Amino acid sequence: MDLQEILKQLGETFLDWKAIGEVIPKMFAVGLPNTIVLAVTSGVIGTVLGMVLALMGISRNPVARWIARIYTDVLRGLPPVLTILVIGLGFGPIIRQLSGSTSPYPLAVAALSLMSAAYIGEIFRSGIQSVDKGQLEATRALGFGYGPAMRLVVVPQGVRRVLPALVNQFIALIKESSLVFLLGLLASEREIFQIGKDAASTSGNLSPYVAAAIFYLALTIPLTHFVNWIDRRLRTGRPEKKEPDEAAAVVGKGAQA
Amino acid sequence: MSEFASGTLTAKNIHLSFGSNHVLRGIDLHVEKGTTASVIGPSGSGKSTLLRVMNRLIEPEQGDILLDGRSVLKDNPDELRRRIGMVFQQFNLFPHKTVVENVSLALRKLRGMSKEQAREDALAQLDLVGLKHKADARPANLSGGQQQRVAIARALAMKPEVMFFDEATSALDPELVKGVLALMTDLAKGGMTMVVVTHEMGFSRNVSDTVTFMDAGVVVETGSPEQLFTEPRTDRLKGFLSDVL
Predict the structure, then answer these.
(1) How far apart are CA B34 and CA A136, in angstroms?
(2) In this complex, is the C-beta atom of A138 within 8 Å of any C-beta atom belonging to chain B?
(3) Which of A98, A132, B110, B129 has the fewest CB atoms found within 10 Å of its own CB?
(4) Which segments within A84-166 are labelled E, that is strand?
C-alpha cells in the first residue's frame, strides 16, 4: 500500500465531507443545545453545591467538615464514567416510579452536577482559604457576624482569585457531558457526542466524530482564551494610573535636602 | 468637651492561653473617657492580643471587660465591636471595594442606611482624613499612609466610643508615619477614648495620657508618660527603653 493510498483511506475515513455535511444540521438543532443545557445546568448546580461544600469544609463544625471531606474524596476519586452509570442506572428506576418519567436526562444532570460540585468545592475552598486572615478580622471588628463577614468580604475575594480554575472546571464539564450517552438518552435529548456516534455507526465512517470534535472545540477554545484573559486581568489588574501624590512628595523632599 | 461620644473602658484581670502558652496573665487596664492609653512592650508581650480580647475578637478565659462601668461580656460580641473601632498594622482594607465602599459598607449593612446616605456619610468621614478625592479609587492604588487613613475613617464612620490602634504605623514607610500619627493625635485631642499599641515612643510620650508597659503577658508598669519614660522603676522597663530609644 503506497503513501497515496494510505492518505486517501484516511481522508475517506475522517474527512468525508458528505457525511460531515449530513450530520451538521442535527448537531446544531439537537446536539449543541443539549450539550449546552447539560453543561450549563450542571455547572450552575455544581457551583452552588460546590460553594456549600467549600463553606462546610472550612467550618468550625467538625461534622460539617467531615461530610464535605468524605463527599469530595469519593466523588473526586471515582472515574466519571462510573459515577454517571451508577447514578443514572441506579437511581433511574426510583425516579421512574416517583415521577413516571422515563427520561434519564435529569439523572445525567444530577450526576454531572454532583461530580463537578466536588471539584468546584475544592477550588472555592482553596480560594477562600487564600484570603488573608486580616480581612475576616477587620470585618468582624466592624461588628459583622461570621456569616455576613464571609459573604460580603471573604468569599467574594476568594472566588475572584479562583475564577480561572473555575472556568477550567466548566471546560472539563463540557467534555464530560459527552459521557451521558451511556444512559441511553431519548433521540431529542442527545448531545454532540452521541449525535456524532450515531451518525458514525450508521454510515460506518468516522467523519461525524470529526464534526463533533469541531463543535467541542468551538465551545472549549474560546473558554480557554477567556481563562487566560481573566488570569492576566487578575494578575495585572485593570489598567489604572497611579497618581504621583505622596511618592512625588518624597522625591521632592529628597531633592530639596 | 468632646467631638466624640466616648466611653470609659476597663479590663479587669484578663487571662488567656493558647494551648499551654499563657499569653495574658491577669491584665488590668483602665482608660478614662476621652483619654489615650498607649501600650508599649517587646514583641510577643501580648499587647495585640489584649486589644483583641477587649473587643472580643478573642474571648478571655477569665476576667471582665467594662464599657462605661458595665460588663460587656454577656452582650452580643458583634454589637460590642460596633462600639469599638479598630485599626490594624496591615490596614486590612477590602481590596475588592473602592475607598468609599470600604467606609460605607458597615453603615449600609449594620446601620441600615440607604446607599446614598451611607455614601454621603462615608465621604464626610473621608474628608476628615483628607482623602475625599480618593473616594472612588481602589485601596491598591493608594500609598500605605493613605490606606491607613482610610482604615481610620472606616472605623470612625461607625461612631465608636473607643478606638483601638494595633501598631497602626509599623507597616508604613518612615516618611508616611507622620501623617497617620498626626491624625491619631487629632483624634486624641478631640476627646476620643483610645488604646494605642505602639512602637512609636514619641507618640506614647507626647500624646498619651497614660502609658502601660507589658512584658510576657503581665502589666509591668503603668502610669503617666513622665513617670514611665523619665523614672522607670523596674529593670525590665529600663532595659526595654534603652533598647528602643
Answers:
(1) 29
(2) yes
(3) A98
(4) none
What is this model's ipTM? 0.95
Residues present in chain A in total: 257
Decide: helix, strand or coil at residue B65.
strand
Q: Name the phi and psi angles at B234, rounded to 5.
A: -100, 155
Pull the grid cell for residue B197: 499599641
Contacts of A73 (CB under 8 A, 6+ apart): none
The distance between the two most distant Cα atoms of chain A, rounded to a whole number of Å, is 87
Q: How far apart are CA B184 and CA B197, in angstroms?
A: 12
What ranges make up the beta strands (E) of chain B?
9-18, 21-31, 36-40, 62-67, 70-71, 84-87, 162-166, 193-197, 210-215, 218-223
Confidence of residue A238 (pLDDT cuts 50, 70, 90): low
CA separation for the pair B121, B105 (Å, rounded) = 11
Tell me which residue in B79, B92, B140 faces A137 most closely, judged by beta carbons: B92
Q: Do B78 and A247 lie within an 8 Å CB cutoff?
A: no
Nearest to B141 among A141, A148, A240 (CB): A240
Strand partners, B223: B211
Is B122 near chain A, with CB under 8 Å? no
Sign, CA dihedral B199-B164-B218-B45, equals: negative
Distance, in angstroms, between A53 CA and closest chain B CA?
Answer: 24
Q: Taking CB atoms and an 8 Å limit, are A142 and B79 in contact across chains?
A: no
β-sheet bridge partners, residue B67: B9, B70
- CB-nearest to A134 from B81, B88, B145 is B88
* Distance in Å, alpha carbon of A252 to nearest chain B alpha carbon: 12
Q: What is the pLDDT of residues B164-179, one digit of tens each?
A: 999 999 999 999 999 9
